[in-house]
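== Sequence, structure tokens ==
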Amino acid sequence: MSSEPGPGLPFLPGCAFRDPMPHPCQGPVTDRVAPEHLEPPEHTSGEAGAPPDPPLDSPGELKTSFHRSQTLGYKNGYALSRLPTVGIGGERLYVNQLSQPDLDELSNTRPVLTYGQSKLTPPSGFVPAHVAFDKKILKFDAYFQEDVPLSAEEAYRIRQVGIYYFLEDDSISVMEPVVQNSGLPQGKLLRRHRVPKNDRGDHYHWKDLNRGMNITMYSRTYRIVDCDPFTQVFLESQGVELNPPEEMVFDPYTEKRRMPITKYTPPLQVDRLKQFLTYDKQVLRFYAVWDDAASMFGERQPYIIHYYLADDTVEVREVYQKNDGRHPFPVLIKRQRLPKTFVDRKKTFPSCVLEISDLEVLEWHTAKDFAVGKATTILGRTFFIYDCDNFTRNFYRDKFGITDFQPVEINKKQPEEVPQVIPPYNGFGILEDSLQNCFSLHPKPPRKDIIKMLENDHKVLRYQLALESPNPEDRKRRFILSYFLSDDMISIYEPRVRNSGIIGGKYLGKTRVAKPGSTTENATYYEPSDLTIGSAIEVFGHRFVITGADEYVLNYMESNAESFPAAALQALREHFRPQQVVKETANS
């Protein structure tokens, strides 16, 4: 049988081809579909009378191959799969073959297989819901009542909202108009989404909304009173019978706040408008002082009093002076009407809390109450006016006929100079170093003579001392005094003596020693000229006597004889004369 496809039939991969047209030498197609329908061929070979060979598909055929057919393969480097045509044992499979009706249908669909399935055009009148109802919203005007439990002025509150129904997805949003300074979280009360209607999973539809009805969403009941024209036209076009509109309910507390407070104002004797138009931007200026020197830490302070003729208000301003030690507050009393005489009132009247009105004041301050050389009491403070400016003089001259504007001389008390008393020396540190604490909070070390330190560096004069003490044990003690010429400091050292019972070592650290009777203001220190043989020095309450010195002291004094008295130099030479005689005798 030929495997080539016949004319007019397509070739399907994985399916054996069956030619519906019969071959001239063969029977019909049905005779070639299943092998069991074919008649066995006549036996033409072999001996006559031999039994014919059994058919291949006979039940008695023995299967010798039990492998499965290969269904995977590669073509041009790509993995391909095909349906098996032969089963286990080489048995022909017909489940993957096409039936005659399928082949007949394929023979009539050659253009579809070649060019693909033709696209069906949608009906011309169809429009999707999300396009037909895009940006089409139903708006209902509603309100809800909210309880106010913790208020003495209102028991409930009415809040007006707008319910928006979006037709494209049946979602609902509730918005409340924002009111300035309402103190309530307003705006979007319910975000846009499908609102559940009951516990069975139903949602609100536009058919459930109408005027004059209540709708409950999330335990909050809204009363729908009206809708906009578009909503009305849409619902009527859908056959919904609308209820008559209702009037919007307003919050009673808000309406009460909007009502003006009835206030009785007696007729004024003075025309305020005429006064404002006549004296606008005209201000009287007075120069005054407030003397508070009698109180603790009080002083005399200057002020400027402004009187505004347009509305009879008074302002008191401070006079700021540079480096006066005060914060520059510009205004002491802000611009206001100042009462002069009050109505007799009880002591329990809370004047420090309530503002003063015309009912509590009999008389207010006017321009007649201010004059040069006169004291005026303003809110408990007495201000003495000692001068005014030229505009104020001209106003009083034209208005009241006052011509005496002689300025009052104010004797400013000069502050008493407090002498700086230096406290006595407490014995700690050097006098100059301790004195710096009296001049500044951040003391600086006293200046040093750098040239003297460089010239006398490492130059030390050493003396032997004996302690003057009433105790017999201290009379045998000997000390070594070192005088440093670079900074005029003294240190005392006591040599250790075994079995003396006294611990030797440093007796006085390096420091400057003042002479007895020195003060903090006039401090005098020991100098090399004060250290002579036999002289006594006092060091912080202890008295020492100089009993000896080294040869360097004698050489230094001889080289600087003009700085030492002759008696001191002669006494030191007499001290070293026996030692020189001994040396000369030993050398000879």
